Amino acid sequence: MIVIYGIKENLNPIKADMSNVIHSCLVTVLGLPEDKRAHRFIPMDKEDFYYPSGRSDAYTVIEINMMEGRKKETIKALIKELFQQIERKLNIAPVDIEIIVKEQPAHCWGFRGMTGCEARDLTYTISV
């Protein structure tokens, strides 16, 4: 599950492109299937979105929630790929992107009527 926050005037026009860039990085680095996309966009009013000085109104926060199990190097590669591809394809400077990876144990996930640790039919590998 990916949650993307930004100022609505900047985020709304690029939602589809941002989703495509993020998903492409997840497929490339984590090996997620093409049809495994769960993105939630939270466009915010500027007065409700405080961010650090030195950033522009393009400042965007990307929270990546996933089951734990990926190697530290894999997560770092994902973060670097996201910075690179977002700058290249959406022209948003890395200083305006914040990425947070949140890993939770599989038993903390619930989908399709079971917990993540009970799922035996995932079409991708967690341990990459």
Strand content: 25-35%
Estimated radius of gyration: 15 Å
User: Which CATH class applies here?
Assistant: Alpha Beta
Shape: globular
Task: Tell me the number of strands.
Answer: 6
**Share of helix among residues?**
25-40%
What's the number of structural domains? 1
Straight-line distance between termini:
18 Å
CATH superfamily: Macrophage Migration Inhibitory Factor
| Largest sheet features | 4 strands, mixed
CATH topology annotation: Macrophage Migration Inhibitory Factor
- As laid out across the biggest beta sheet, the strand order is 2-1-3-4
Question: Helical stretch count?
Answer: 3
- Low-pLDDT residue intervals, each spanning 5 or more residues: none
Q: Structural class given helices, strands, pairing?
A: alpha/beta
Overall average pLDDT: 92
CATH architecture verdict = 2-Layer Sandwich
How do the SSEs run, as a string of H and E?
Answer: EHHEEHEEE
Protein name: Tautomerase family protein
InterPro entries: Tauto_MSAD, Tautomerase/MIF_sf
